Batch of 3 targets.
Target 1
Amino acid sequence: MNKRTKVILLFSIILIASPIGFVYVLNNGNPYTKYIANKYIPEHLEEIGYEKGQLKVSDYGEPKYLINKDFYHGHYMVVFIDEPDTRYFYGVTKKGKQVKQFCEKDVLSANGVSDMVVSKTKHSEKKCVNFLDNRD
């Protein structure tokens, strides 16, 4: 294979792979931020004393709106077994890869509607960060 054929082949591969990669990220989220969240957040939860048996749900997600620019876009949603109607959210800072709990929590009310609250709840951490701050 001569040099020109190699260049054309490489260009063709890039031309085909770019849209496929773009569609993948749109449907599944950024694999790097997912890796960061899956690495640091479960570790943080264990460090502060939570065991897997205490968690009803712990899963990575990407919000459909902008969050605090100091954090990676993807975050973790956690539901504790002893508080099944409250969803807590955790994020990882871009600087220093520190895990922080977001102050906003989704609480399911008796009528089935989910409300966002910032008040102290059973599993609130002392220092939390608003995920709606610093979005400009």
Note: The longest helix spans residues 3-28.
Target 2
Amino acid sequence: MKKIILFLLSINFLWAFPPSEAYFSELLSDNGKVTKNTLKLKKIDGGNYSAYFDGEITLTGVLERSDNSDVDTIYSALRFYPDNNIDLPFLFSLVSADSYNIDDYKEFERLDFGVLLENIKVKLPEPLNKRFLGAAAVRAEVTIRNYSIFCEGEAGREAYGELVNFKLLGDIKTEYFDKYDYEFKGEAIYSILEYNSKDDYVNIRDKANGKIIGKILKKDMINNGGLLLLVDINGDLSDWEKNWIEVYYLPPDDNDSKGTIHGFVHGSQIKTRYN
């Protein structure tokens, strides 16, 4: 697993701070193109250190899905990283500004991290369309609208947009994260869970109290190397046993995580290693 992602994903960030580069940064080009740009500054919100834009921009770069961390929340992020020679507006000086009049701000610094995309209608190919234990990316031409930026100095930064359209410019590159990193290296983003049921198996479901999509066998968890990872919890950790817990389950024969099951188990059936 690449060291840069292990570093970024092995700590809880104190602020909303996106990855400083794409996981598959080698896919970025120095000859990217902007084929359409109607972005126009619409509003600056000085109180929230934000700026909002009308219009759309169509440009080339890398469309990537991977896990990000924000304080104590782990989320699956779809981001777009513009090619190396392409600028997107990012206003970084608002934190020290004396005025928040739009007319005062004509110059924007280069965006050097990915735009966090909301995807409402665009149908993406697998595995870019879902959360999974790994990272996937492809060179693409994308169209983004509702572009906005949050730029509270060094305490936080983020760029947002809505994915309108895309065109693949190559093959999708995927890397599944290795079970070894989670069991032995201690560098991974997810906490490891343990079996805590009196039954011989625990059901894993597609959503809280939803359809059963797999079974976690007690013998596999205890004796055969089955690995259960905490993704997120729906509620307060103090009510662990009353909540449905979002997890990844890597069965004993799933060494490269391609067979990982992403779902939900009830908190009464599992525990953390620190309980």
Note: The first helix runs from residue 3 to 9.
Target 3
Amino acid sequence: MKNLITLLLTILIASTTVYGQETKEKQLSNADQFSAKAGTLIEKQFIDIGQVKGVQVKVLKLKDLNDGTTKTALRLEYEYKSSYSTDTKIASLDSDEIEGLIKSIKNLQANVFTSTRDTYTEVTFKSRTGFEAGAYYDTGKSKWTAYMQLSKYDSKSSVFLNTDDFSTFLTLIEQAKTKM
């Protein structure tokens, strides 16, 4: 009987621990899901648009060669270099998210960067895959710092931008949108 109670308590503790942990699975974009379809032939075209602060902006065009269906996405690539290795960080934004990103960047430029705050403040745009772009207000420096983070749980995918870089990023996104 004592062994049964010990077994049940162990199972209860283990299931509570596993259930309570936050999952860090990366959510796939619609384009990533499309390209991962099994049993089909997918063509991928990578159209270079430009780069800002080491982040390459590309348009990804996907075509199912068996049935002719297509998808497009904005692809951002950043090569993170440490003293021991390099790693490429990649973010994909579906074509239906691009207009929201453009609108958010323009709002940041027109309304946020020109303002001040009394407390530390963050303003962010997030995509369904975890890409984030935005800014935070540092009260000690009395200024906004813009950034983008390509992967949700990866601080090594963060790139800090000044306002000129942010304008360049907007221009590249608008160019990419015309090629989608």
Note: The first strand starts at residue 42 and ends at 52.
